[in-house]
Amino acid sequence: MYASREDIGYDFGDDSKVGSKPIKPNPSIDGGWAWMIVLSSFLVHILIMGSQMALGILNMEWLEEFNQSRGLTAWVSSLSMGITLIVGPFIGLSISTCGCRGTAMAGGVLNALGWVLSAHASSVRQLFLTFGVTAGIGSGMVYLPAVVMVGQYFQKRRALAQGLSTTGTGFGAFLMTALLKYLCAEFGWRNAMFIQGAISLNLCVCGALMRPLSPKDLREKHVVRSDGEENRAKAPSHSTETVQSSGVLGEEAERTEEAANEEVLGSGQHAESGGKSGSGRSMSGLRLFKTLSQLTVTVRKGFALWYSSYFGAASLFTNRVFVAFIIWALFAYSSFVIPFIHLPEIVKQYNLSRQDNVFPLTSIIAIVHIFGKVILGIISDLPCISTWNVFLMANFTLVTCILTLPLMQTYVGLAVVCALIGFSSGYFSLMPVVTEDLVGTKNLANAYGIIICANGISALFGPPFAGWIYDITEKYDFSFYIAGLLYMVGIIFLLIQPCIQKKQPREKSTEEAQV
């Protein structure tokens, strides 16, 4: 089901209903419980993304324990990171049917189970299944709801809220690295993973905090968005045509689905009223039937929303700018992951290990990354600033740094470039905001699931590709050059599609005038 005009925040000229009576917004929007949602998302990023950035500690333990090649062992970490993001579209289906709270709590249990089972693994290939797949899917089931809930609860300060919540990645990288180092030294890596599994059960608590907004509250938020000049200025205007054309189809599908749902529930209620004269046993059966009917309706509605978003007439893929966004995501994330994976080896090649041990370059990226997310979020929320333009400028800065990094052969030069990489990569906090502006709040879960799936593919194959290039050339320079050029291709797609989108309506109006 696609976004209506209220979802995307555009004005299509019919504001009579909006202006007829004032709407009192829910106090939880942009305040109150919304900050508890930010806290929950912050903790999720610490426990999931922070733990994944600290997997280098466990990777060394696995190399020593199983005596396998570095390439094979590294796939355990790559699978965990990649699957966390790749399962996004399927987690969108779970959110549509079970809600963010239920999906996140189930994911917390699955993630903890993956850590515990991995503590008993007897080979690297078992770790592929227990840690890479099981813990990875559990992480994805918690990560996507944490991002979506922040988008639902915030309107005026969306970019700042997403920035604050995602800073948990940087904090988690420090905390989890220190924790895993201590646990491995004191108890061994198997007991360390068992303890980490127990800690991961706190993800269930984070999921419990994700209190859903009522449909009425979401409608009020959409009305506020359609009235807000600030959000009209920030949203990429080139997606208006696509959203308008497909919004009607989505609303018709929704009305058809609701009529079918009312019929199912009505039959259950009729059966219950007819059975009141029966025994208590038959009444219990009728209540069970009604409960199952309501559950069936919920699942049908969730699946219909998920299916129409991907494959229906109102598919997200009819939005060309969103498709360009997906192509960009396929190339972007590896440019951020590759420095984290290969910088230590580059430092060793340049004989800079002594300076790097004092203040690691990866730590510089992580620290500045925290400030970058918050600062870019604050800038994007300014009334006179376009989130889309901030997002593009940060991407240009990052790709320039990726192409420049191989030219730096001193610690100071590498430190400056790494600081710029950390700051400009703070645009990750703007990705949910840009996605919501493109497709609307109603489709945010499914759309952002596609985006992080593309990021997951990039994270899964990017570092091994860089290692393969090194095996051929015996240099990491070409790895950064190729990653940077592919990243530039993705940015060009983001720039070209808006121009095409704006040009098409102009050409159409010219043809109509000639007729």
UniProtKB/TrEMBL annotation:
Location in or out of the cell: Membrane
InterPro entries the record matches: MFS, MFS_dom, MFS_trans_sf, Proton-linked_MCT
UniProt xrefs under Pfam families: MFS_1
Provenance organism: Regulus satrapa (Golden-crowned kinglet)
UniProt key word Transferase: no
Signal peptide feature range: none
Keywords, ordered alphabetically: Membrane, Transmembrane, Transmembrane helix
Membrane topology summary: Multi-pass membrane protein
Domain Major facilitator superfamily (MFS) profile: start-end pairs: 37-502
Positions with biased composition (Basic and acidic residues): 223-233
PANTHER family: MONOCARBOXYLATE TRANSPORTER, MONOCARBOXYLATE TRANSPORTER 14
The protein, known as: MOT14 protein
GO molecular function: monocarboxylic acid transmembrane transporter activity
Stored PROSITE patterns: MFS
